[in-house]
Amino acid sequence: MLHDVVKVKPLGDHRLWLRFDDGAEGSIDLSKEIRFDGVFEPLKDPAYFARVMVHPELGTIFWPNDVDLDPVVLYSRITGKPIPDFDVDACPRERPA
Q1: What is the dihedral of CA 38, 86, 80, 50, to 10 degrees?
Q2: CB contact burial 9-39 (16+ within 10 A = b; e otherwise)
Q3: Tens digit of each residue's pLDDT (9 = 90 or more) over 30-88
Q4: How far is CA 35 from CA 12, 20, 41, 50, 76, in A?
Q5: CA 53, 58, 32 angle in degrees (round to 5)?
Q6: How far apart are CA 7 and CA 51, in angstroms?
Q7: Domains of the chain
């Protein structure tokens, strides 16, 4: 089951506190999760990093430059649960006769 981020709070030092729609919550240190280059380079600036928001449609966090993070990965890091194995064969499709 996929869970949406419903609340985020910057904690400083590239750390965030997150709450998910099932009540799971905790903090994550994004300096250990992402490299601050490319599209993530603006997040090096603590003031910019603190502008993090919850995206109302995507159910994850994002910044003003539209960079977002996968809520499945965030949920896994917060809860310690493994990332689900989304089996592409689980989706029905036509097979040749």
Answers
A1: 30
A2: eeeeebebebbbeeeeeeebebeeeeeeeee
A3: 999 999 999 999 999 999 999 999 998 999 999 999 999 999 999 999 999 998 886 65
A4: 17, 24, 8, 17, 19
A5: 60
A6: 13
A7: 5-81 (3.30.2020.10)
